Amino acid sequence: MSFSSEVKDELIRLKPEKNCCMLSEISALTQTCASLRFRGGGRILVTYSTENATLAKRIFLLLKLRLNIACSLAYSQVARFGGRRVYTLTLSEADSRKLLLQIRMLRKSGELEHLRGVPRNTFNKKCCRSAYLRGAFEGNGSMLEPDKGYRLTFLSSNEDRAGIVDFVLKKSGIGYHLREKRGNWQTQIVRGDDVAAVLAMMGAYQSMMRLENIRIQRETRNQVNRASNCDVGNSIRQFRFSSEQTELFNGWLEKDPEGKALTKKQWETLKIRVDHPEASLEELGTLFDPPLTKSGVYHRLTALEKSIRQSLEQ
Question: Which pTM was predicted?
């Protein structure tokens, strides 16, 4: 089972609680899983379709608990993807109208009724925003395997529906990116902290803890790799630094084998470097009397190198 499927399975099995939250989750599931059939004379039929049997049961349960709506459940076999079952929940015309009025997709204005999107004031409560995100993910969400990166996606069939998810995320302080791809709108969350926050908001605490464990492992592995690469880089730079200096100092010794043109301090520095070409700066520092720090050795060597190069150029 993929990580995305595990998250959905955890969310679907959560126990429904507050009436307002159940209505928000029903609203999101209606936006993502339902289709409307207009039968003339203002009559509307709402039908939910999903390939997830557990999700179909949750939709059935939410409608029964919150709105006392009993829908008919049927399934059909489809040939694509090796043959899968599609579960269909159909509401009666009266229950369809009742549902749309409750989630405010159907608005009465005098004797007329108008269909519209979900009013944003429905999500003033934090718990309702969390429930809406939960329903949106259950219906049409996905998540990249944490081992490969961080990306949680809400898929919407049009920009208006995507705007509802974006509003909820913005209200909750979650960063996201919205883009259109092949006629669908994708709201993507790509920062690890934001992905973990959304999982916690939706109630997927087990999945969030697993994500955090993977994040810690990845960060530890990255730190080890960075430290290793840094050590290798330092070793290469140190080798080049010592090789160039040793070559320069040996060339000077051929011209001045007794170091008469150098001061006592410069001669001591040159001899220690030439006699110990593979030693690090820290190791060279212990050979001086009195011992020098790594920084002190570096400054002595660079000063000596500069002095010798100037003498050779004259």
Answer: 0.69
